[in-house]
């Protein structure tokens, strides 16, 4: 029995995207291949690579998210690690990609956190930002039994709930990741916003 391999040699990532994946340091060969598998033959016009470290029961967990904008799609690749079994001795990495047509992207939101706004320097845009991208591929509906104001009421009032479209939110901090990380996130958001605006104009 031998391992089978998917030939991704024809799919080239830009030097800048390769460097960003390498700099994140999270299994770069694996992450690069996952992105290549999703790209196909489309070039990447802009990208953002975000690495995050979290703590789960005193165990350090790392995650990386790659956003790549092609001429027609937004590609989201996310990889994280978790124990292979309950002993926690082995490690497994799960890598997921999602390809979203630019026409389906509903909005790009940037939330800026500005410390000491009285001393704000023009062009700095704060010390932290959250990039949120929403699209309409899937809508989540969370239902719970409807409540009644009468504590003695035993009637069935059906269900109530909330509906929310799919989105992704990345928090980037200049303190933790450097000023350049904020600049890169802002540049990607501007490029994606312009691309979905162009798609909207082209459809009308």
Architecture overview:
- This protein has 204 residues and is of the alpha+beta class.
- The chain contains 4 helices and 7 strands.
- It has one domain.
- Helix 1 crosses helix 2.
- It is globular.
- The N and C termini lie far apart (55 Å).
- The model has no long low-confidence stretch (mean pLDDT 83).
How confident overall, as mean pLDDT?
Answer: 83
Distance linking N and C termini? 55 Å
> What characteristic shape results from the CA principal axes?
globular
Strand content: 35-45%
Explain briefly what this protein structure is.
This protein is an alpha+beta fold. The protein has one domain. The protein contains 4 helices and 7 strands; from the N terminus they run H-H-E-E-E-E-E-E-E-H-H.
Characteristics of this structure?
204 residues, alpha+beta, 4 helices, 25% helix, globular
Which secondary structure elements does this structure contain, and how are they paired or packed?
Elements: H1 15-24, H2 28-39, E1 46-56, E2 59-69, E3 73-83, E4 91-101, E5 105-113, E6 128-145, E7 159-173, H3 174-177, H4 179-203
Helix pairs in contact: 1-2
